[in-house]
Every structure is written in C-alpha cells, then in structure tokens.
C-alpha cells in the first residue's frame, strides 16, 4: 500500500479550501427590545433605533456552552451527513468558560463515540469574540498543510453573551455555529490577503472567574473595534494590491459583493461600513475626487485616528454609504438584530443570514469580506469567494437550501416578558458554577434536537440529554421539519471532497 503522504503528493494538495456546510443554533426564547426599553426605563428607541436591536435570544439554566455546541455540531453532522468517522480535526472557539481545564472540544467527543473515531486533532481557542475565527483559520490551515490526512475539519463556535443589568445588557445574545471545512468548498477562503491586527487593551475582559459577566469599557471597546477595522482594511488593501491582476482596480468597497462584520449591535456595523467608505474616500487620488465624491471636500484633511467619535464624519459617510450598506451588509444582520451578539459565532451568524437570503447566482463568484473582532484585542479581515460551480446539485446550491428555514425558525421562538428575562438572568447569576445542581428551566420550550443540562453532580461533572427530534410543543412544532432526516442536506456526490481523496489515514495506521 503506498504511503498516505506519497499518494497525497501524487494527487496534489487540496484546492479551494473553505466552508462546505454551516449550521446555526440560537435559543428558542427571546425578549423584545422595545419591551425591554420600557422595562429598563430608558427612552423609547434607545435599544431599537440607537443600537439597532429587535430581539435578544437568551438561555435558561438548562443550557450552557457545552450544550449549545453539542446542539450545533449534532445538527451540522445530521444535515450534512458528513459522517463522524470522516472528521480529522475539531476546533472550538468560545469565551464562555465553565471549566479552566476541560475543553468544550473534549465534551463534544461524546458525539463521536459510536463511530469509534478518536483520532481528531484540535482543541479550544479563547480570546473574546475572536476564538471562532482563530478556530476557522486553524482548520483551514490544517487542510492546507502537510499534516492533512484527507478528512474534513469541523469548527464549532458558541457563546452565551450576558451582561449585568445596565447599559450593556441589551447587547447580549447567545448561540452557536458549526462549520464543515474542506477542499472544493462552497465558500473558499481567499489566499494571500488575510490581515490581522492584535494589541494589548483592556476594553472588555472577564477577570472574575466566578461570574458570567464581563468588565466593559463600552466607549473604549468601540474605539478599539473601529481602529482594528482601519488597521485590517489598510493591510488587506496592501496585500490585495500584490495579488490582484494588473488591470483590476485597487482595493475599495466595490471589490466586495458583501461585507460582513462581527456584530456587537447592529448600529455599530452600519457605522463600520461607513468607516470603510471613509477609508476609501481618504485613499482616493486627488485627481479622482471630484468625479467620485461631491460635498465631502471638508473631510479630506481628517485623520482616521482623530475621528472615532467625530459625529460629522460619521453622519456624512453613513449617508454616503447608505446604498452600499443596504446591498452589501444589511442582509447579514438578520440574526444579529433578532438574536443579538452571539460573541464568537456573531460573524458566522452573519454569514448564515447572508446565505439564507442569497441565490446561487448572487453568491457564485462573489467576494464576501469578513471582519472579525474580539476584545482584548484580536482582529482579522479575510474574504470568502463563492464557488463557481452553480449547478442545481452543486455544493453552493445545497448550502443555500440548507438555510431556507432560517426565518421560520426565528419566528417559532417563544417571546418572554422582560421581567421573566430579568429573573432568568438572576437565576443564572445565582446558580452559575453551583454544584451539585439540578436546573429548573422548562425543557419543553426547547427546539427539537436541543441538547440540555440535566444536572451537575457534587464533583462538578455535567450531564446532558437531547430533546426529542420531534415534539408536540406548539411553539416549536413549526421547526420540526428542519430537524428531521427528510430535511437533511447531503453533500453533493460529484464534489464531495472525500469521494476524490485518499481514505482517511486512520484505516492505514490502524493496520500497522
Ligand atoms: P450606552 O450608554 O447605552 O450608550 O451604551 P449611548 O447612551 O451612547 O446610546 C447608544 C446609542 O443610542 C447612541 O447612538 C445614542 O444616541 C442612541 P449614537 O449616537 O452612538 O449613534 N440613543 C437613541 N437613539 C434613538 N432613540 C433614543 C435614543 N437614546 C439613545 N431614545 C454601549 C452603549 C454599546 C457602549 C453599551 O451597550 C455597551 O457597553 N455594550 C457592550 C460593549 C460593546 O458592545 N462594544 C462594542 C465593540 S467591542 C466588541 O464588539 C467586542 C464584544 O463583542 C465582546 C467580545 O469581543 O467578546 C462586545
């Protein structure tokens, strides 16, 4: 039998590595932001117009980071039918730490038990909202590396974003995203342009290990986010100039068909798109200015670093970029406005939102800009290219079909009154890290197929069960179909990476 490495070399290294399939999970309970404004006694419009939020998803004591990730991964594996035995790397990104030693990845390994597959690299990565992106980069790097053995990688990112009562509370949320990564992907990670900005700042951090709540300097966090965006865009533009064809124009927003951002709250995302338009304006050669812009001359002398809270600049470029925002960014904010900040999955929830509202024609060949930000801080701007294979059985067509139920799932949630939401937050505060503990949250309200915590024993060991895949609960019944086998999305045979790749190394090495 030829060695795995030599057979891989004969076949060539993997091409078009990126996201093949994606699944999102968000809680079945949410609170309305308008009602929250009244309950919190703030002026009407502050959360809905000022922050751009509509609803906020939240979890009872029945869900924790392990259960969220178990649910997202189970759904991905069922819908993609990738097969647990075909996974060679599993990466988790999260900032919701419930154990200082035991990883979420190790908890997820219980899903692989039946397959007998324990040869799975990868572990948890943490830095605020950035962990999911670090996990994705690790997964892509593995597939593109000499260590790759021909199997898929999976990335799971999840978080429960909760804040103490006060100004930050309406910017919470919760959820998890799982992604199948491999060659011949539907959304290919572009090479040579990925750009990062990393620095040491205390803008948002979680020094109190006994609490779920962060310590936040809201204003500083916004400045850090915007300056990271400026930095990443500048570096991405420089790298783009090196790889672009000589005849194509330099980097500007027009190079992106869609531009997605980590979304702590939707208003900041609209301001971020405007920020890129301001960058483009400052980068425009003097001789082209009058042809491209009118009425903005006064801002030409402005400097990026002096304008993070410059209302005039913000207003002028939000107006200037309205059409671009509506076209390139607004569709990606569906989950962000309806669920809130999911932390590590936020950017990937944006991707799911975009996919759910795309057609094969609109996504094929398009460039999707992805800006990831995690406080502390770590930021990366990268881009995905939609596959050119646009047939009805193509991976891209299947990816889009797999998200057709998104709106239906959002509508099937149960809306909870703000006082009950506040009580739930209080319960989480009081019982976080309690052992032994038996959760009291109602499991009947959970979506079908949701994993939940049954109890924590006196040694802090957590036990989980899965809610039935079909339910008689009226509220969640509407989404039953999305969780059943009939709705599963099989990977396209023609472009299934595994069909054209060497057998997983597991079968070779286990025979030695
Ligand atoms: P705040 O005190 O509510 O701020 O805190 P505000 O008083 O400035 O109000 C917010 C906006 O509402 C303002 O809009 C007001 O004018 C407007 P702006 O002028 O800035 O455009 N407003 C109204 N609009 C319409 N009708 C009204 C009304 N009243 C006021 N009646 C803040 C807001 C975001 C700072 C707070 O919620 C917070 O600290 N959140 C958490 C931190 C955060 O989200 N930071 C974002 C960047 S950092 C990041 O993204 C990382 C993160 O995801 C964590 C991680 O990485 O893990 C957070």
Automatic annotation (TrEMBL):
Pathway(s) where this gene product acts: Metabolic intermediate biosynthesis; (R)-mevalonate biosynthesis; (R)-mevalonate from acetyl-CoA: step 2/3
Biased composition (Low complexity): 493-502
Superkingdom per UniProt: Eukaryota
Gene Ontology MF annotations: hydroxymethylglutaryl-CoA synthase activity
EC number: 2.3.3.10
Catalytic-site annotation from UniProt: 95, 129, 262
Any GO BP annotation: acetyl-CoA metabolic process
Catalytic activity: acetoacetyl-CoA + acetyl-CoA + H2O = (3S)-3-hydroxy-3-methylglutaryl-CoA + CoA + H(+)
PROSITE patterns hit by this protein: HMG_COA_SYNTHASE
Disordered: region residues: 493-512
Annotated Hydroxymethylglutaryl-coenzyme A synthase C-terminal domain residues: 187-467
UniProt: CoA binding residues: 221, 267, 271
Location of the Hydroxymethylglutaryl-coenzyme A synthase N-terminal domain: 13-185
Family matches, as SUPFAM superfamilies: Thiolase-like
Keywords, comma-separated and alphabetical: Lipid biosynthesis, Lipid metabolism, Steroid biosynthesis, Steroid metabolism, Sterol biosynthesis, Sterol metabolism, Transferase
Top-tier EC class: transferase
Function according to Swiss-Prot or TrEMBL: Catalyzes the condensation of acetyl-CoA with acetoacetyl-CoA to form HMG-CoA.
Family of this protein: Belongs to the thiolase-like superfamily. HMG-CoA synthase family.
Name this polypeptide is given: Hydroxymethylglutaryl-CoA synthase
């Amino acid at each position: 039998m030829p060695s795995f490495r030599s057979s891989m070399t004969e076949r060539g290294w993997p091409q078009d590595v990126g996201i093949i399939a994606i699944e999102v999970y968000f809680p079945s309970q949410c609170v309305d932001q308008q009602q929250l404004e009244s309950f919190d006694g703030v002026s009407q419009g502050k959360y809905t117009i000022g922050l751009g939020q509509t609803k906020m998803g939240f979890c009872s004591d029945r869900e924790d980071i392990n259960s969220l990730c178990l649910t997202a991964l189970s759904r991905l594996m069922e819908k993609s039918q990738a097969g647990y035995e075909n996974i060679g790397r599993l990466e988790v990104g999260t900032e919701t730490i419930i154990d200082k030693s035991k990883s979420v990845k190790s908890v997820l390994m219980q899903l692989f038990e039946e397959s007998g597959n324990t040869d799975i690299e990868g572990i948890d990565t943490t830095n605020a909202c950035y962990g999911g992106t670090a996990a994705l980069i690790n997964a892509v790097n593995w597939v593109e590396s000499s260590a790759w053995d021909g199997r898929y990688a999976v990335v799971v990112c999840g978080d429960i974003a909760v804040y103490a009562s006060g100004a930050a509370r309406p910017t919470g949320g919760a959820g998890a995203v799982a992604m199948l990564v491999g060659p011949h992907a539907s959304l290919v990670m572009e090479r040579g342009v990925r750009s990062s900005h990393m620095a040491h700042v205390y803008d948002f951090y979680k020094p109190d290990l006994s609490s779920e709540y962060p310590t936040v300097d809201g204003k500083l966090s916004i400045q850090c986010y915007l300056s990271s965006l400026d930095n990443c865009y500048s570096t991405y533009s420089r790298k783009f100039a090196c790889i672009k064809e000589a005849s194509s124009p330099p980097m500007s927003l027009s190079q992106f068909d869609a531009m997605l951002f980590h979304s702590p709250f939707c208003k900041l995302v609209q301001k971020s798109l405007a920020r890129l338009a301001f960058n483009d304006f400052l980068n425009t050669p003097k001789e082209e200015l009058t042809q491209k812009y009118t009425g903005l001359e006064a801002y030409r002398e402005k400097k990026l670093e002096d304008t993070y809270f410059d209302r005039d600049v913000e207003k002028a470029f939000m107006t200037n970029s309205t059409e671009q925002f509506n076209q390139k960014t607004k569709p990606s904010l569906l989950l962000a406005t309806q669920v809130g900040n999911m932390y590590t999955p936020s950017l990937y929830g944006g991707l799911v939102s975009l996919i759910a509202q795309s057609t094969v024609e609109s996504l094929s060949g398009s460039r999707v800009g992805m800006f990831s930000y995690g406080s502390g801080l770590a930021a990366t701007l990268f881009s995905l290219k939609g596959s050119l294979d646009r047939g009805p059985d193509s991976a891209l067509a299947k990816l889009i079909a797999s998200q057709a139920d998104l709106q239906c799932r959002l509508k099937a949630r149960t809306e909870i009154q703000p006082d009950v939401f506040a009580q739930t937050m209080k319960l989480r505060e009081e019982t976080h890290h309690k052992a032994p503990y038996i959760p009291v949250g109602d499991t009947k309200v959970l979506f079908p197929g949701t994993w939940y915590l049954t109890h924590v024993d006196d040694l802090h060991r957590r036990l989980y069960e899965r809610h039935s895949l079909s339910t008689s609960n009226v509220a969640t019944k509407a989404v039953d179909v999305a969780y059943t086998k009939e709705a599963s999305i099989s990977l396209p045979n023609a472009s299934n990476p595994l069909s054209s790749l060497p057998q997983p190394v597991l079968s070779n090495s286990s025979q030695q």
